Amino acid sequence: YAAHFREIPPQAPIIKHFTESFGFKEFAGRLGEDFGFERALKYLGAADGFLEYTIPTPLCRKPTGNPCRECNGTGRSEEFDRDCLFCEGDQDIRYDYQEAYAVSATLSLLLGLMEFPDIETTAAIPQLLTVTTATIRESHGGSLGGMYSRELVAYLKSRGPGPIPEMVAAMRTVWERVESRIRDFYDHYFSAYTQGQDGWLNVSCPGDRAGLNPAHSWIDKRRGCEFSCHNVDNPMQQLALLASLAALHDLARLAASK
User: With contact defined as beta carbons under 8 Å apart, do 166 and 155 qualify?
Assistant: First the structure.
């Protein structure tokens, strides 16, 4: 796929749309080097027939340098006698998604292009899942969905009902990077577990019941399973859920190799 990939020019309509919508300054459209808006995906090199990239997880919850308006810069909530929930130490904070939007928009572009390749790819191993994402400045603007392959559904079924701690650990790692820490009241928001006997997978991250679920009330084990999201509003949630899918992929790939 990469060998036949044609460079995407900055003048392409989809590139102009994202650039104008988010105020991006630069776009690099050639695989085999840093790729995307603000060159967000960092090229690592070629290995085992694939091009490898790092997906950044930029800090979004940032101190402003101004005293917190809720605790008057003390860092403590007098009402609840605990650390202030609205600041970092003693500084007011704001959510700045600009760098994360560049990562999200780049993934939306690249994953959308790769969903239906116009050539037969040469990978010797089966693709375990597909993912597409959205990048919009509004509710549900970090949505994602895709398809679990027949092999991945079989792996989920083989696990039986129960938690998948590796998926939770991946989400927590990303969340610590994009929000600087995991606040106490977010601890119970992270979960990933199968239920029933058919590999039904539920995944949750911080937000208003944000997470991933199968898109239908049934799973066809002969064809795999479509999945979709609920209330994924921003790139922080999107990146955390993508990390959980990456962890699931690696678990299934490892199990298949044994």
Answer: no
Report how far residue 185's alpha carbon sits from residue 178's, in angstroms, rounded to the nearest whole number: 16
Say how far apart CA 20 and CA 10 lie, in whole Å. Answer: 12
Alpha carbon distances (Å) from 20 to 105, 187, 188? 12, 37, 38
For 190-231, how does the pLDDT look when each residue is reduced to its tens digit (9 = 90+)?
999 999 888 899 999 999 999 999 987 666 667 788 999 999
pTM: 0.92
Please spell the DSSP secondary structure of 229-258, one letter per residue.
EES--SHHHHHHHHHHHHHHHHHHHHHHH-
The answer to whether the beta carbons of residues 215 and 146 sit under 8 Å apart is no
Strand pairing of 162-163 and 87-88?
unpaired
What is the per-residue pLDDT across 137-168, written as a single tens digit (0 to 9) for each? 999 999 999 999 999 999 999 999 999 999 99
Distance CA 107, CA 245 (A): 14
User: Distance (Å, rounded) from C-alpha 86 to C-alpha 73?
Assistant: 10
